[in-house]
Prior knowledge:
Elements: H1 2-21, H2 23-31, E1 51-56, E2 60-61, E3 70-75, E4 79-80, E5 86-87, E6 92-101, E7 110-120, E8 123-126, E9 129-135, H3 137-143, E10 160-162, E11 168-170, E12 175-177, E13 183-188, E14 191-194, E15 215-216, E16 226-228, E17 233-237, E18 247-251, E19 257-258, E20 263-268
Parallel strand pairs: 9-16
Antiparallel strand pairs: 1-3, 1-20, 2-19, 3-6, 4-5, 6-7, 7-8, 7-18, 9-20, 10-11, 11-12, 12-13, 13-14, 14-15, 17-18
Amino acid sequence: MRIGRLENAIRRLSIATLLLLCPASIEAQTLAPTGAGSGGHNSVEIPAGTVLAVRLNHGFSSKTAREGQEITARIMQEVPLPNHGRIPEGARVLGTIVSVEKAGTGRNGRISFRFDSLEISQQKMSVVANLRAIAGFMEVQAAQTPETSPGFGTPYPWATTRQIGGDEVYGIEGPVTDESSNEVGKGVFGGVLVHVRAQPGSKCRGAMDAEDRLQALWVFSSNACGVYGMMGLTIAHAGRTEPVGEIVLAADHNDVRIRGGTGMLLRVAR
């Protein structure tokens, strides 16, 4: 048992050293658009149930947005796919505003939008995605900040962080545990790889395929679902049902305001 722990510690130290000494080469490998097989990203097949953890590039509001306006988001962690495919970190998810209702006398703001394409190295592929979770900029920042300052001599990548939704991450290559201390995945460079779980009492489901593969959730917990750190905002329609892929956000008062840097968990419907 002690030998196993020592080997794990050596492996984590090697990874931490590599991250500190060679960040540029690691980033270059992450952003290389390689897909399944020899056809590059053109041959990538994204199965239903694949989660895309994204960050909005720019904000929008029901007060100023207009129908047909483009919205964009960035893939924040490399997404592993079956058959050795992957979606690189830095790929863009593109969408449009479908409709806008400004706040007025006796009504609050609503805004609907959809993400319908994925762009890798300026080449696009169609997707239909619903919304599993949305979190404000401050929640995203908090999830990337260690819960306590690393001890003297402890590499920063080993620091413990708490995901949006409650999961605990014990550094790169360390375990990820849920609120009941059950291991649900592992920490990796740029995020986590975990088994997606259902959120009790919600419409957010667990794995949608028989293999229950590990998925890249960036700063979100394995069962993250709903709205985090955005007071007065509700998901009126997540896009799971008709109209599939159309996401509707509503304000409890005044207008809907979504800032740039907002984090989202999208789930591919087809």
